[in-house]
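[SOLVED] Need 3D model of a two-part complex

Original post:
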Amino acid sequence: MSKSNLIMNSENLIYTLLDSKLIQSDKEISDFLLEIQDKHDFSTYLKILGGIGAYISAICFIGFFGAFGFFEDKFTRIFLGILFISASIFANSLIKKNYSIKSSFLVQLCFAFMILGKIMFVTGFGEFLTGFTINFDRGWNYSLALFFVTFGSYFFYDRDRFLSLFAFLVSILINIDYAISNNYSEIFINGYFLFQFICICILFIIPRVSRKYFSIAYSFVFSLSATVLFITIKTVFINDGDFGWITWVFTNLILSLGMILLIYQVLGKRNTIANKAFLGTSLGIVLLGVISSSGIIFVIFLMILGYWRHEKILLVLSVLLMPIFLISYFYNLDLLLIQKSIVLVLSGILLLVIRFFLTKISLEGVYK
Amino acid sequence: MLHKIPVDQKLIEELYLNGKISDEARQYSLDTLYPRNEWLLWLLRLLMFLGSTLIFSGIIYFFSFNWDQIASVAKLLIVESMIVVTIVCACIFSLKEVRGQLFLFAASLFVGLFFVVLSQVYTSDSPAFFLFLYWSILIIGWTLISNFSPQWFLLIFLVNIFLITWWNEWVSPSNDIKFMIYTFLIIFNGLILSLREYFVPDEKMKWLRFRWIRIVLTFLILPIMLIPILTLITSVTEATISIILSSVLGVFGHIIFYYVYRYKFKDLLVLVALALSVCIVIQVFGFEFFGNLIGGTTDGILFAIMGVVALLTFSSAVIVLRKIDKSMESSNV
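Solution:
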């Protein structure tokens, strides 16, 4: 029987931890587990299903208000937006979470009202601010409205935190691209990239923080993915001259340094720089930084982070993004088709060689 | 009582966040629950997949570059020799190993390439579905012995494309039987999924046990069952016999899915996908029903009603599935 089978239930988990001397007594944990048993939350699949229902419902309500002309005036939108958000927060605090149909209906109604309220407020407030701004792109007004609405409800309502924050972060990216003049756009995009990357490092290196601020951590991960994707599209497919060597050097440098730090953390403090594995991996990362694109380094970074922290979403995201970045990398290579074909075959052989050595190392580990 | 509480990542995180276990204990529990060897195996497979894809793409690139300069006979000979080489490699590495399976998979792709080259060299006017038909027939044998899920998905993909192109190009169906294609697709893909579930307990078919195979097939079949049902609802007065037949089959399919994944194989994700499909049907039916009842002049009221209907259907689905999830959890511990 494998170890994972041994701790399939809580009793075995406690015994395993006691055996390993990682806990002193089982009493406190047992009481806690029994206490939370009935409060066990919905599975993620059910949350997604409920979320889809709430979104469909919110769209229908938008249709209702739109048909009766409530969307024409910005002040009506702001007023109704605040009203729906407040009603949603208030009703959500009163709902008894006893998993009845009535309670589930009210939970979803609150969610639908929250979405409706936020859409009304953002569109209304964004338009309202446009009247006060001169020579200023109106996109920022909507970002500001998103900021107010996201952080205004953040501590009172938790169901839409991730989506709301993600929308806010992506709106900043869009505005940097559209609203800032081409001369500064590259600097701002790189600055925004660095800011998001530092936030992710801080949030995920300390597990307590990443679990406590789960929605913030993941909205930053998804937003940084969007930023890297945006940079790739700009440099590879659009190639409009806005982005060049500065972005390539900067993003590759930051991601490579971040990955070296991550590997250092993964290997543990006892295995310091003298450790052969660390030196070998660092050398590999430096080489990757020199020859590769930011997208490829980013997905490898996500993969290692997900593997280390047992964050399945990070792993899935990295696998989904990998083909996009690989295709864009080879598409962007400034080589003849025949040279590209040689590079492709050699890269493939390189990966298979890495696989061969990894298999060998892991087998040696098993036999030792 | 404690032995009835299942352990998952969420529970460990909850213990950690509430200060009941240390960071070290958290990491130890997670490492034990999700062993690192599994991740390593996953990484090795990913490297194998990426490496093979890159080499395969490199070969395709090479031919695209030199295509015009290569003589017709040489083109055919090169593709044929690639098929032979990959088959020999598959035999050398054995089909019990991923390497051998990947070579067989590459050979199956080269068979398709061979037909493409053949139709270019001889500028054949034969319909496209013949290509997919011959391609499928020629790789059936390899697929049966491959024990490799991507190989099976290639065959399933080819048969689906063959059925669609054959129906549209060759049969050119009249309006009455146009929707029969959905019946064929439901039967074919449903049969494949049934075979997967039937052979899963077989010790020799361990490769079938990956849950993603079921999930991919489910997400392929559900839309095929859903489309005729929605068409019937939106055009009930003009429904042809093929729409009715495909819809009835679609409804039966939903019922069978519910029974099988509720009681036999217990898979919450499949049940959630099924519930989503049913909720969409109710939503579309509601729009049609209330739209006809109220009339087109008061669209706003219709939207308000449908907003409430959406909340009711989805919240009922969530609660029903929550109860099923609880019962599954307790029976799985």
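Edit: Chain B has a mean pLDDT of 87.
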